Structures are given as structure tokens and as C-alpha cells.
Amino acid sequence: MVAEEACIDYIQKNDISIKLISEESGIFSFGDEPRYTLLLDPIDGSTNASRGVPFFSLSIAILDGMTLNDVIAGIIRAPLLLNYNLFEVEKGRNLKVDGIPIPTHPIKEQLSKAVVSMYVYDIDLERVKPIVSRAYKTRLFGSIALEICYTAIGLLDALIDTRGSLKVMDIVAAKLFIEEAGGIITDMEGNLLTSNVSVTERYSIVCATNHSLHQEIINLLG
Asked: Terminus-to-terminus CA distance in the chain, angstroms?
């Protein structure tokens, strides 16, 4: 992966002490006893990318620790989109979208007015049917990290992924972005994502721009 090679090259040239965990190639350690960890997903939305669809992204997160609560900064970059293509976050600081302060969009607190992105296997169709029937619109774009960020700023109102197949690299940078924006991201039971970072663990998620809409979805999921 070009993005992964560029990241490793930058770390080596600048003599940065850090642990790198990549979705594609695994774990690398640079320097002596690195304090920080970099989680890299070189391409989130590989099916889109392989077919020439420009909706895919690069996701980078920096952690000071090894739990999902230890993320201190993140970048999600969609190189082929014309706008809404760069999301930057530092914990406790201002968010940026395309290099400027985060834009504001009207918040939809009711599912009947919400546009919801959904990833569902056949086995879960009955479980999500009440959401599909109540939502204003449903969508699926093909890059989870980008769609979490789109939810954070109100381009989408919620995102549901019931598949249990998401890796930590898919969500970790975008998780910080939506939380810092005032949104919420949890598992399917409404529990916050606080586990240790593991390359083998898989996730299902529900995220929304606001707690009221999130709770309505969780209630419908049962």
C-alpha cells in the first residue's frame, strides 16, 4: 500500500519513536520503548477504490495508551473527493473539515426525519426492519470512517453496522471525531466503545449526531 509505505518512510526519515499498527501489514515498532501508537487503515472502502468509485479514505489515529479511550488525534482523508474530504481532530481541541472549523448542519432528533447509513447481513434484516420503515431515508456509501465523520457533521444523521466485522483501524480515528463533535458511537446495546486495542476484535456499531436519535435506534434494535 502506497499510504502505508509513505507513513513508514516518514517515521524512519524523521527518527520518530512510535509503534505502528496497520490493517494491511500488522505491527511495527520504531525507536526504543515508544510511548505513542499509530493506527493506520491505508484504504477504508477498498471495494469502491478497486472499481473506480472515489468514496474511500485513509484513516490515521494516534494513541497515548492502548484503549479506545486513549486516542488523542486523528485524520480521515478521502483523496479523490472534491469537498468534505479531510477530517482532522485533536482531543479537547477544535475540529476541522477541509482545513476550516467544523461546519454546522441541522440536527435531526427523530428517526422519521433522519438519513441513516446501514450495513446489515441477511440474518439481521428482521432486527433492523423497524429502523428501515421509520427512517426518512437509508443509504450505504462504502467507507465506514468517512460515514462516521459525515454523521458527526450532519451530512448523515446516523450509521448502523450490525455485521460484527469492523476492525479497530476502521473506526478509531472517526470515533474520536464524532465524540469531539458532540455525537455518540456505541455497540449495538448502547455501550460506549472503551475496550483495549486489539487487531483481532471485531465490532458492530451504532452512531448518531445526537443522543436522542441514538437512543431511539437502540430501542428499536431491542
From this structure: 40
